[in-house]
Amino acid sequence: MERISWHQYFMAQSHLLALRSTCTRLMVGASIVRDKRIIAGGYNGSISGGSHCSEDGCYLVDDHCARTIHAEVNAIIQCAKFGVATEGSEIYVTHFPCLNCCKAIIQAGIRKIYYAADYKNHPFAEELFRESGVSVEQVELEEMILDTNNKEKLAFTAELLGKLEKTGMPEKELQKMRNKANELFIHTS
Ligand SMILES: [Zn+2]
Ligand SMILES: [Zn+2]
């Protein structure tokens, strides 16, 4: 049995949260961690009870969605709402934080940022993190832990199998490949 690392565990949590995003422009998730415990989580979404971008479309102002509260800020606000200290904590985010989130993170006393994917990394955000001594480290989610593009892989494999069929490959071999694909994509055990 192989245990997953703390990094992978917390990053996987943020990727799960990202799946709850309601803004269609970018699905982001963030988890705030202190002493190896998740103290808060957030994703890109509207205010509670507000209309969702996924239903009513984004409210664009200067090419930014004004409706959305970013995942990092949502997680920090959750701490404010329930009175949980963020001082000295760490944050795991699926994407490099934008400038506004960068400032909120620094101001909340979060000391370490782990992000999975680069995203329009703003040089001023990088500078502010450096100046304030917040460490920034990229931690990519290992595919094995949470397969985030399973549907695409399935579609691609189906297309490949369809093309193989047209090449005149013997039915017996084709069947073997179909069986293998089924085994990989459909977990029935
Ligand atoms: Zn939006
Ligand atoms: Zn942001």
Automatic annotation (TrEMBL):
- Which Gene3D superfamilies does UniProt cross-reference here? Cytidine Deaminase, domain 2 (3.40.140.10)
- UniProt entry tagged with the keyword Protease: no
Entry superkingdom: Bacteria
User: Where's the CMP/dCMP-type deaminase domain?
Assistant: 5-136
Keywords, in A-Z order: Hydrolase, Metal-binding, Zinc
Q: Which GO terms describe its molecular function?
A: dCMP deaminase activity; zinc ion binding
Q: Which PROSITE patterns match?
A: CYT_DCMP_DEAMINASES_1, CYT_DCMP_DEAMINASES_2
Enumerate the cofactors the protein uses.
Zn(2+)
GO CC annotation: what is one?
Answer: cytoplasm
> PANTHER family recorded for this chain?
DEOXYCYTIDYLATE DEAMINASE (PTHR11086:SF18), DEOXYCYTIDYLATE DEAMINASE-RELATED (PTHR11086)
Task: Give the UniProt family note.
Answer: Belongs to the cytidine and deoxycytidylate deaminase family.
Q: What is this protein called?
A: ComE operon protein 2
- Upper taxonomic classification of the species? Bacteria, Bacillati, Bacillota, Bacilli, Bacillales
